[in-house]
Design a protein that fits this description.
Length: about 300
C-alpha cells in the first residue's frame, strides 16, 4: 500500500509491499499530521502541498519484508555510530549507495536500509518486536529524509523550536544542557508562544530565506506539527551562573550550527551540500550563544536580545 507525506514541503512516498498488525504505516502515528491524499503524479504537479508548482518526491521508500543484506563482496564497512538509542552500522555499496543496519539500545536488529547514492530511492526491512519495528522504521525514514534533503538545501537540525508572533526561534545544545528547559521557559514567561518541535525541526533555504518546519521527529516530546515559520534566530544554550547573550559572527556561527545538523561526514556529496547550506543559513539568520541559568526569567533576557 502506498502512503504519501508532505514533510517541510517535500513529498515522501512510503510503499509497503505487505501490511499487517506488526508491519504498516500505523506503527508510526507521528507521520499522520503530514499525510496528503492523492496520486503521486498529480501531487507533483498540483502545487497544493509544497513550495513549487512542479516537483518530484524527495524520496521513495519501499518496505519489503523479504529484503536481506547484500553480499559482503558488494559492500564495504564505513563505520558504526551511536545514535544515543542504539548502534547503526553503515556500509558503502559498490554502486555508491548505502546499507544501514539499525539496532536498538539492547543491540537488537530493528531495520535494514538499502539506498541509492542520494537516498531518493530506498528499500528497507523491519524485524523484531512491534516496538523494535517502530523504532527501526522511524530511524530509517529520518536518515533517508535528512540525507536526501541535503541535495535540496534542506537541513535536519537537532534543536528545540519555539514560535513567537509567527517567527521561529531554534535552540541547540548538547543533550542535557537545557535547550528544552529554555523553550519551556519561553512558553511559560512570554505571551504569544507555542512549541513547534522539541528535537528535530527542519530548515529549508527558499529564495534566499530560511524557513523552519515542524517534523515527525520530536524526541521524547510528542510534538508532531505540520507547520512552518520564518526562522528568526539560532541560539546555542550554555549553562552559566548569570544570563548573558553573545551574538556570533558568521564564521563562529557556522561552527555552532554545523554540529547540530544531521550529516554524513564520510560522504563527500552529502557533507558538502550540508556545509554549503549552513553557510547560506548563517548569512541570512543571526546566531547567538546564550550563557544562562535555568530560571524562568532567563527566557525574558533571551527574548529581548534575539528578537530585536
Amino acid at each position: 500500500m502506498r502512503h504519501i507525506f508532505d514533510i517541510a514541503g517535500h513529498l515522501c512516498v512510503i510503499d509497503f509491499l505487505h501490511e499487517d498488525e506488526m508491519t504498516g504505516i500505523h506503527i508510526l502515528p507521528s507521520l499522520e499530521p503530514f499525510r496528503v491524499n492523492g496520486d503521486v503524479e498529480a501531487l507533483c504537479h498540483s502545487g497544493n502541498c509544497g513550495i513549487s508548482a512542479e516537483r518530484k518526491p524527495l524520496l521513495v521508500l519501499t518496505v519489503d519484508m523479504a529484503l536481506g543484506p547484500l553480499p559482503k563482496e558488494r559492500r564495504q564497512r564505513i563505520r558504526e555510530f551511536d545514535t544515543g538509542n542504539g548502534i547503526t552500522i553503515v556500509d558503502r555499496l559498490c554502486d555508491g549507495g548505502y546499507q544501514y543496519v539499525v539496532r536498538d539500545i539492547g543491540g537488537n536488529d530493528c531495520a535494514l536500509l538499502i539506498s541509492n547514492a542520494d537516498f531518493s530511492q530506498c528499500r528497507c526491512n523491519l524485524v523484531g518486536t512491534y516496538n523494535a519495528r517502530r523504532f527501526g522504521l522511524n530511524n530509517v525514514i529520518m536518515f533517508a529524509y535528512a540525507f536526501a534533503g541535503s541535495f535540496h538545501q534542506t537541513l535536519m537540525v537537532h534543536a528545540s523550536l519555539v514560535r513567537h508572533k509567527g517567527v521561529g526561534y531554534a535552540f541547540t545544545a548538547k543533550s542535557g544542557t537545557g535547550k528544552s528547559t529554555q523553550v519551556a521557559n519561553w512558553l511559560r514567561m512570554i505571551p504569544d508562544c507555542d512549541l513547534m518541535n522539541d528535537d528535530n525541526p527542519i530548515v529549508r533555504i527558499i529564495d534566499g530565506k530560511a524557513i523552519i518546519y515542524g517534523s515527525p521527529w520530536s524526541g521524547k516530546t510528542p510534538c508532531y506539527r505540520n507547520i512552518s515559520a520564518p526562522l528568526g534566530a539560532i541560539t546555542k544554550i550554555c549553562r552559566a551562573e548569570e544570563n548573558r547573550v553573545e551574538r556570533l559572527r558568521a564564521i563562529k556561527a557556522f561552527g555552532v550550527v554545523l554540529p547540530s545538523c544531521s550529516a554524513m561526514k564520510w560522504d563527500h556529496a552529502v557533507y558538502t551540500n550540508i556545509c554549503d547550506t549552513v553557510t547560506v543559513l548563517v548569512s541570512c539568520v543571526p546566531a547567538y550563544v546564550f550563557h544562562c541559568t535555568a530560571s524562568p526569567e532567563s527566557a525574558v533576557v533571551c527574548k529581548k536580545a534575539i528578537t530585536k
